[in-house]
Structure formats: C-alpha cells, structure tokens
Design brief:
Glucose Oxidase, domain 1; eight-stranded mixed β-sheet; alpha/beta; two-stranded parallel sheet; 12 strands; 2 domains; 247 residues
Length: 247
C-alpha cells in the first residue's frame, strides 16, 4: 500500500485548454478524433451517467483499489482514518479536478459517500468517474457522477481497499494516467491523453463548426450525401457560411 508521504500532485492543464475542450468537444467527438490520432478506444466502458445533463472536462486525479488482504488492511470503516488512501485522493483537490477510481468493478463497495463527496466539491472538484459504486447517492452533492451503480456499503466493507493515489490506473479496463483530461457527458466518459489534448481541441473546434453548418442544412432538408460528412462539393458553401457567421 502506498505511503501517503509518497503521493504526488497531478499536473493541471491551462484553463484556456479546458475551456476550449468544454466548448467544442463532446465525448463522441473526442472518441472519434482520438481514434484517428492513434488512440482507438479511449472510452471508459462501464460507468454510466447518474447525473443526466451534466458535462465535465477536467484533469484526472486517480485512486486505485486492490483486493482486500487482512495482513495489509484492517477491517473497519474508520480504523486509522489518515492511513486510508481514499481520503488522501481528495486532499489535493483543486478547482476543476475529476476523481477517477479503479474500484475493480465492485458492486458491493461504496468508495465514497456523501461526506467525502461534499468535501471534494467544497474543494473545487467537479465530477467522479468510478468503476464501481458510491453510497449515499440521494444526498450526493451537485456534481457529475459516472458510476457502475450504488450501494449502502462503505468502502472496505466487502472485497477491496484503497491502495494508491495518483498512479496510472485501469478504470474499467481503460488506461488513465494522473493528469489526463476527462471529457464526460451523457454519452459516457473519454480519457484524453494530456499530450494530445491541444491537438484534439483544435480538431474539435473545426469538427464542431462544420457539424453545426451541416446540421442546419440537414434540418432544412439538405442531402445527407452532400452535407454529412461535409463533401468537397459543399465546402464553398460552408466557407461562405463561416464568413457570414464570423467563424
């Protein structure tokens, strides 16, 4: 189990980059464009939106759980609280952070409850992605939640215990490095490798603009073959539309 003294803070991207991704890049756009950039499946399959209508974009702080073993982790919800690493995963929270948890798909361990999540939101956290469950769901604070489920059990009640913070994790089988950017909405959760985030933001802005144009044309009865994807034949019309709309 990781020593709390060895926990490293994450590196956070600029607010400008986060704002650009939030404005122009949905999870679907991110998944599609990343597949063309060498990351064929950045989708975290498993956690689903429990707060419909929420969209979050922010850097990932990570928490890794492991199977319980009595000689490493004692039983009890509040035994030696400051040795319990799920607390330390939240202590470094800054505005805009997302906590991403590899809970091994457990459906019987509530990795956080209302009090922990309230602290997280109070410190500026905006969302949680959990390959597993939380508890106290009806009292959860206003934040984005992508979960496999909910449970009344506390975090170490059954089969897992918190093992490491801000290390690479496999969240539902998807690699997440601390500081990677999470884009999550009603379609699901996508992990953006931090070194590809600027390029994705640029591609996403272009993608969003031509899709807006194409959507307008299709709503007006335009030919799908002409406008989706945008054909070379329709490009002069698109460029004129951009100029007229100050794009």
């Amino acid at each position: 189990m990781q020593d709390p003294k060895d926990i490293q803070d994450i590196k956070r991207p600029s607010k400008e980059l986060i704002d650009k991704l939030y404005k122009h890049v949905s999870s679907a756009t991110a998944a599609g464009d990343l597949s063309k950039m060498g990351v064929p499946n950045a989708f975290i399959q498993g956690p689903t939106p429990f707060t419909p209508g929420k969209k979050i974009v922010g850097p990932a702080a990570t928490l890794q759980f492991m199977p319980k073993r009595g000689d490493i982790y004692p039983d009890g919800e509040y035994v030696e609280p400051e040795t319990q690493l799920h607390r330390h995963a939240l202590y470094g929270t800054q505005a805009g952070d997302v906590i991403v948890v590899d809970a091994r798909g457990s459906m019987t361990s509530g990795v956080f409850g209302n009090m922990m999540l309230t602290y997280f939101v109070g410190a500026g956290g905006i969302g949680a992605v959990v390959d597993g469950c939380i508890r106290d769901f009806p009292e959860a604070p206003d934040m984005g939640l992508w979960l496999k489920g909910v449970t009344p059990n506390f975090h170490t009640q059954t089969e897992i215990f918190p093992y490491a913070v801000n290390v690479p994790i496999a969240c539902s089988g998807t690699y997440v490095a601390p500081g990677d950017i999470i884009i999550a909405d009603d379609d699901g959760v996508v992990v953006v490798p931090i070194h590809l985030a600027e390029e994705l933001a640029e591609k996403g802005q272009v993608h969003a603009e031509w899709e807006e144009f194409s959507r307008q044309k299709l709503e007006a009865g335009g030919d799908l073959r002409l406008y989706y994807p945008l054909s070379d034949q329709a490009r002069p019309e698109y460029e004129a539309w951009k100029k007229a709309n100050g794009k």
